[in-house]
Sequence to fold (138 residues):
Amino acid sequence: MVKALADRLAEAFAEWTHQEARREWGYEPAPLAPEDLVEERYRGIRPAFGYPACPDHSEKGKLFTLLGATGAGLHLTENGAMLPAASVSGLYFAHPQARYFNVGRLGKDQVEEYARRKGESRSEAERWLRANLAYEPE
Fold:
């Protein structure tokens, strides 16, 4: 029960922080009604690594390094899960045309190009993108 409560509180705080950022940036002078939040009737998005718009968990390591997250007691497992488990991370984009999206199925050519740009092997990219592959890795 404590774990479930901690998870919900972490997500609620992330949503509140996103709302505060929109308010501070002048995009939302008053808090939105709960139904407006659910329907995402606000400017900007808060995508996170490991979710449909950013399926590659390995990018979370760069974010942790940039923010010095380990100094705050946060750590990543070898698979990119955050510890403590009731942790959230994400990116804020405030552009009025920013919308959530899903990365579809990726072909081998797309994964090869992605791996090349990241400077890693195709097999490493496939490891992190396995759920989005449109083919069976060798």
About this structure: The longest strand covers residues 75-76. The chain has one domain: 2-103. The chain has five helices and two strands.
